[in-house]
């Protein structure tokens, strides 16, 4: 048995990629990924059309897909997140079929229960052996965790691993085992290492961001969850990391020993684990080099699959045991619904990722965002896209005050008692509008360009084209 | 969500164990296992009948199952291996329904393709957290690898973990993740640590055994497979370990750097890895304390599932990349078919385990056995049970000579050229019979008490009752 194929084209042909099929990709190489573009280019050259691309995320580096959408090489798109460049083209109506948005947990879950069927998965593998044992931890394009690729490997009919670093059989540290992999193709480069780690991973210096982070940390402190065994997820943005910094200071001061931290992992969380503030890191995606080094070298830094992270089809997942998550928002409405899919003009520039998964699973979900952005208030009557339902969102923290979901009366009492600036969400809206004026309500009324599925696979909202 | 249950009985009831169902067990606690007996005792007390027990192996410690067979609590039995005590009862016809024998790879494969359906899996877990993340590496009943339990966890409808060592969530080093586990029960003891490690794991001192081992090592040497990248599996018996010792000496002398060793892992193989003779160990089952320590502490000592080890349903498995395997036999026939299920009287006292899997996958399968045992010749006209088909067996090594499968003409030439005592298999039979006399052919003619399925799930032989 020989799984090595000379060229990507050979593997595509042998995998039987045909008009109308669904192919999948994972996004751990982020904005440095070459594989999605490479595969689509070959497929286009082979004259194949009408494919659905299920990619855990689409970044700006994937802009060439716009051409394939125009040429009907790709006519279906399913993602958990979409960057602004492709997002704008979609929002302007480049596709006939609506994009399907899922969450990170929902994507894995829908593959598990068979509602999202993949014909051929292409797995960018920073390290592989010739029988298809794969790892993201080694090689020139190392990305660390390959958490989102596990479900693709397990449930696709055919699996093609694309690597630029072949090691002798057997790989000594395996993430995805050979039993799931049909073919291995070795190419020059699967990604641009310097762009694999992308986005802000430094603590904000902006005073508004720091104020929000400080208040969010105060919410954590007075919520009652900050005690031994504490578990925590925060994003990689500058404000999220600032929350981590304040939480760290409190944990150190009060000698709190947390259990785990989670999410897109940065060096900041790694350093908290190293200090003993958390026993372990559950890592579904690495956001910087320190995280990649740590998952390779530190046994307490565990790679987890999207299923283990957040699948609602699993018998349980890590988000079910999460105490506190810090989340972002482009818009929040009076019912605490959160939009992370579009900007305030209705253009797609994001997606749920793990947003609705962690909001649903955690004991305390805190949305942090500036009250006003680009002269527009954060809080609106109705979000343009309901990414995360308000019933799973506990607290909104802005620099001008904190709104607590009316469902959480005890939590509200605790925060008021602690002297935090708790306000009604309507008040926060009015404060913003007193500064910006009441903005003209934008409401795209074009045809449906995207459907947003909640983590259980049920449609929760649609996104309409902007004319 | 709370997965902890106070008692085993509560978990059995909640899992919905009912008359006619199939329940499963894994055997990493070997002859020290308490869990199978404990569960069956509760089930019997609950008045449940007509169960099928699918246990990866049954040891003598599981003798109480005989009572449950008599009482029709258990009416079906599916195993990869069965010790002599229960084996005798089966051979004497205690069950109406034939026992189903599979191989280690075949059991996993049949679960994967749905032909072997388990309703409730009971997983003995030396270490667990309250959400069902499981490991075999820690705790007072540590068994190391839990390789055979993965398929039970993944494919059973309900999964109950039984542990005697609960750790705080989340377990930092997880073998079976929580997403597969419904309930966790903490009991006093899941096993007798001193008997978990059982069987001979020391090199034989018997001169006949040493002679056989020496010859087998010479076969390895002159086969052409002993070179850089060499991969090797040997059992835990004294003669198998003696082969390892001779192979070790040759590798050291010739500075050969092997790739992996595999199988039931002992301290001997661990020490070979530590010396750099093998890059990594692929471990589906630990046979002694050194192996358990090593899989816990050494990153190059990898736990693998039965699927990754040997499943013919996987897109590939480790046995497909194995160079040389050393195997045992109770009988070999003139067509090189091997019996490891019964003794020469026809009594069940074993099973395939990974025998036919590794024979089929490896480039060179060597059966080592004394030419005469208990005054009976090893080589017979027809084996009482065809455990491993002769077309996958390359060489038979006895103290009096070596027989090479006629299919392997090149190999035979190499061994003859090296001056090894190569003989026709018929000659070996005659040499033995010259000493023992031609034994009376035993051939049980009772009803079928067991069916032997080959690794692909197809029946390869049956075992009949001894009157």
How would you summarize the topology of this molecule?
The structure is a homodimer of 467-residue chains.
Chain A lengths: L3 E2 L2 H8 L6 E4 L9 H11 L5 E5 L9 H6 L3 E6 L4 H8 L7 E3 L2 H9 L7 E6 L1 E3 L4 E2 L13 H7 L2 E6 L2 E2 L15 E4 L6 H4 L10 H17 L8 E2 L4 H16 L4 E8 L1 H8 L3 E9 L2 H9 L3 E3 L2 H5 L13 E4 L3 E3 L4 E2 L15 H7 L2 E5 L3 E2 L2 E2 L1 E2 L14 E4 L2 E4 L4 H9 L4 E2 L1 H12 L11 E6 L5 E6 L3
Parallel strand pairs in A: 1-11, 2-3, 2-6, 3-4, 4-5, 5-26, 6-9, 7-10, 9-11, 12-13, 12-16, 13-14, 14-15, 16-19, 17-22, 19-23, 24-25
Antiparallel strand pairs in A: 7-8, 17-18, 20-21, 23-24, 26-27
Helix pairs in contact in A: 5-6, 8-9, 10-11
Structural features:
alpha/beta; Glutaconate Coenzyme A-transferase; ten-stranded mixed beta sheet
Characterise the protein shown here:
2 copies of one chain form a homodimer. By secondary structure, the first copy, chain A, is of the alpha/beta class. Chain A folds into 2 domains: about 5-195, 3-Layer(aba) Sandwich (Glutaconate Coenzyme A-transferase), CATH 3.40.1080.10; about 205-440, Glutaconate Coenzyme A-transferase (3-Layer(aba) Sandwich). In chain A, about 30% of the residues lie in helices and about 25% in strands. Chain A is built from 15 helices and 27 strands. A 10-stranded mixed beta sheet of chain A has the order 1-11-9-6-2-3-4-5-26-27, sandwiched between helices. In chain A, helix 4 (about 85-90) links the parallel strand 4 (about 75-80) and strand 5. The radius of gyration of chain A is 22 Å and the shape is globular. The termini of chain A are far apart. The mean pLDDT of chain A is about 95. The interface of A and B includes residues 172 and 311 of A.
